[in-house]
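Standup notes, protein team

Yesterday: finished cleaning the Chitinophaga niabensis set.
Today: Alkylhydroperoxidase AhpD family core domain-containing protein structure.
Blockers: none.

Input for Alkylhydroperoxidase AhpD family core domain-containing protein:
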Amino acid sequence: MSKRIRIKEVEPAIYKAMMALENYMATTKIEKLHKDLIKVRASQINGCTYCMDIHSREARQHGETEQRLYVLTNWRETDLFSEEEQAILAMTEEVTLLPQGVSDETYERAAKLFDEQYLAQLIMAIIAINAWNRIGVSTHMIPNE
């Protein structure tokens, strides 16, 4: 794999702007485990090894179980995730796989479970990790580098 640019070094102002969004997201009402599920699942879909590594470790530090992380890609086929977590995972997948769009069913399910502010914050959390994933994948960021 060829060495690629490090955006943080080449364009520190752009990286600072991304960090401002990330820092704001840390102040939202979103529960830590909800954020972790969003970050790990989007990173799996996008194939960002760097983010999968970081966020799965963070999730475990926040109390996530190994079992749930192991089955996260098949969350629909298990009863290990709450109704709220299932709604969050469905939104994460559909926002991440945007060309398919976010279905009315998925959006309405989330809107029934969360107030408007929490839902807005969830959508922004999904958008933020997708941006980070695209940075990680396009620049070939790898864990422990």
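Follow-up from PR in the comments: The first helix runs from residue 7 to 10.
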